[in-house]
Amino acid sequence: MKALIEAALVGLGRAGTPPADPDDPGERLLARTSDLPPERGFLLRLGVHAVRARAGLAPALGAKRPETAPPDPRAACSPALAAIVADLCASRSKAILAEALARIDERGLRLPPQVIPALAELREPSLLPAATHVSGERGRWLALHNPAWRWLVDGVAPASLAERRRVWEEGTPDARLSALRATRLTEPAEARGWIEAGWKAEKASLREEMVSALVDNLSSDDEPLLAQALADRATGVRAAASRLLARIETSPLAARARGRADAVLDYTAPGTGVFGALKSRLAGKGHGSLSVAPPAAFAREWADDGLSEKPPAGTGERAFWLRQILSLVPPPHWEQRFGATAESLVLAASKTEWAEPVLAAWTDATVRFEARGWADQIWTARVAREKPQALAELAAIIFPLMDATVVHETAAAIIGDGSPQAWNGILAAVPRPWSRALAEAFLKALMRAFANTQLAWQDVSAWRATLEIAAPALPIATLDHVLALDPPSAETPAGQLRNAFDTFRSVLAIRKRIDQETRP
Amino acid sequence: MPLSADQIAALAPDANALAAGKKSAAPRLWDALGRSDVALWGECKGSAIYQVRVALDDLAAKCSCPSRKFPCKHSLGLLFLAAESPDRVPTATPPEWVTEWLGKRTESADRKKQRAEKAAEAASPDPEQQARRAEKRLARVVAGVEALDLWLSDLVRTGLASVAPGDAAWNAQAARLVDAQAPGLASRVRRLGTLPRSGAEWGDRLAEGLGRLALLAQATRRLDALDAPLAADVRMAVGWTLERDEVVAAGERVGDEWAITGQLVEDDDRFRVQRSWLRGLRSGRDALVLQFAAGPARFPEALLPGMVLDAELAFWPSAQPLRALVYERRGEMKPLAARPDPAGGVDGLLDGYAQALGRQPWIERFPAVLGGVVPVLAGDAASERFQVIDADGRSLVLVGSGHWKLFAVSGGHPIDLFGEWDGRALLPLGALADGSYYALVSGEPTA
Fold this sequence. Notes:
The complex is a heterodimer. By secondary structure, chain A is an all-alpha fold. Helix content of chain A is 60%, strand content 3%. Chain A folds into five domains: 2-55, no CATH class; 75-154; 161-245; 254-385, no CATH class; 388-520, no CATH class. Chain A has helices spanning 2-10, 12-15, 25-29, 38-55, 79-90, 94-106, 116-122, 130-145, 151-154, 161-170, 173-186, 188-198, 204-212, 223-230, 235-245, 252-262, 273-282, 317-327, 332-338, 342-350, 355-368, 372-383, 388-398, 404-417, 420-427, 436-451, 457-470, 479-483, 498-517, and strands at residues 60-61, 75-76, 109-110, 265-268, 289-292. Chain A is extended, with a radius of gyration of 34 Å. In chain A, 38% of the residues are buried. Chain B folds into four domains: 5-106, no CATH class; 127-238, no CATH class; 248-335, CATH 2.40.50; 346-439. Chain B contains twelve helices and 16 strands. In chain B, strands 5, 6, 7, 8, 9 and 10 form a six-stranded antiparallel beta sheet that branches. A six-stranded antiparallel beta sheet of chain B has the order 13-12-11-14-15-16. The longest helix of chain B is centred in the first third of the chain and has 32 residues, at 127-158.
């Protein structure tokens, strides 16, 4: 065969016709065609050999079977639900997918195997840990065979400490970090021990993550390790260490930060006694007053604690230093120091000429130190002062620190008297699912928009975004009601929302089916 | 009939219709829903109220909407709705607009049958004229084949290594064969023309293809000397076609419960070609049903992979009968639950294929029903190259892409696999694991 193919490639004109082998049964078949022109005879020989080669193909031997996936203790979810999940993976609808996976997980069910590759292919850590739980043993098995799917198992630490210890010693970087973080939550000293032991040999990016993992259950016991990290050769590691040290009250770094900050703020309580209170109120100072004295010069040694001297264009030097100095101090410090509530302090700050940098710094500090008691106050003070765009950014960082009930009330109030252009950014940051009251406020506003014959086109397009935000967020209990609503009339300006409203309802219909399929 | 979402999706003419169909499944859009032993119906609120009805035996649908897609989104929506929330579609007495349509369907089916019988009886209106026409065509084909032989001879004399890829010469030769009324040969030439310098071992594949084409040309010249069934194969390969009536009249008819083991749709420029592989549960016979649809039109026969169809098939005359058409359906399709035997390992498949080649050497695709094979990743994960290995440790390479689903379904355990064997590699189309059928939509094999 090989000789024939070579001759065909080179050309019979140059290579000549390879001689026939009279013992070959294939060639013998062609004996009767010997009177044909040589090229045609050759082509027929090629054909006979090709057919015989196909018929005589020998299968390969020696391929290795993979180890079998262990059986899954969980039962599979319904085929209908699996089909929905497959659709959601294909359309990358992360919010609804997250809801579906969480519901399947809550019921203690798993996905059937054929859906897992599509889910694994998303590589979406925000779906953890539900994605891991519902992929079950088959997902774990698949991840062993496809490194791109490791996130599915590496993102979630095993339950037992012994197993986590093994992962810490043998796992991939992601798996090790998951094990470290999980251990830090329950056995903080053990986790610190792991870092101390293996610390020097690791890459800078991993060292940074390891240091950052100390954030849970942070205590003065972590100081020596952090002090060591503060001298690390990588900037990222140093920055992570200094962030954490600032949170340990007893650390010299935190003490220096407090010292710097104490020098720039002072507070006078409202007058005491009947006369004092009256005097304060007449002076408009029911919450006391804050005096702010930003530094006049940048001290060299501040740079060692991570402060920068040069402000970005458009920001004054003193305001820039002030903001940095205040943002490194946990806000509750001021409550202790001045014996005043967060509410009084924030209100007083709003009234100073340095209100903007002080409130910005306190926002940074509230987020950095997760000062939940301050989040409401910061939000209230800044809503009164700022434009929707800035508020959307603020909402994204501050809402997670606020009580969900309060956020929902806040959002309902904003929907009550704002326009969709103003509220979309804020609404996107509201935790899901929405409260019933918020859902009702949303529906009331929607019905008003449907009925509004003067609805501006900017509002129409903003409503499209609102519908997209609301679709995954409305509470399950309201779905039936919303699904029964009539679309906007084609004659009104809101008629342009008919397609968006259709999509909105089809998302709700999918959520309703997810709910039905996961009911016990 | 419990249809899965996958199976309903297989009915959709395109992805848009499928997405729209899923949307149309919302219960709030529907009114007057009902089902009987033979049909589903309902009124769908779209831009207007549409009356939608679906026959359960062949899943033919009729909707009063003006859509030119078949089935339309409302019909798909009704099927999805009935599958998702069966309790929303209660058993009821069909309204008049349903019974009327069902009546018309029976009538037209009867008429068709009568026509077919008449055509079979009538045989040929003017045998003499027909014979003359056939003789004339044969002469043209043989002249075309002679020219083809000269062209092939030139090719091997100068050598394949000097052939340029995408050479216009291939298309010109194909066009000459179309003129000679041998479209089957023409498309073989066109396909061979894509091989030069196209991946590993292209020289081997091209030389083998040319050799097989030369064998076909030789067989065409000696058509008279061949046994009737093999002559029929050669005629089909060259491009003689048979009408449905002719197949019904001349071919073998086999009634059985046919498992639809796999399906593949290929998009041509102008039309879509659907290949469905069937396996008779009682006879163990294999059949290939080819269907063609232009643009968004639906394939005439609803064949859903993973279902069992009780029907009589008519096979094209052949030394190795595979291609068939659905002559008569009897009732609804049922889900396939157990492996349609006989199913062997790799050796069994290769033996069967060798025997088939002995009877009909131009077979292009051969049905594979493999029992108890394990999909194996060959090489690293990123390469996405897979094999299947049987109980005796023999393995075959899988072509196409997207085999992770198959791999996931198996989990390293033996499964039953259905596919197409082309003599070199296996294209998986369906799998049966733990009593469930999985349709495998593999990406197109890349040469």
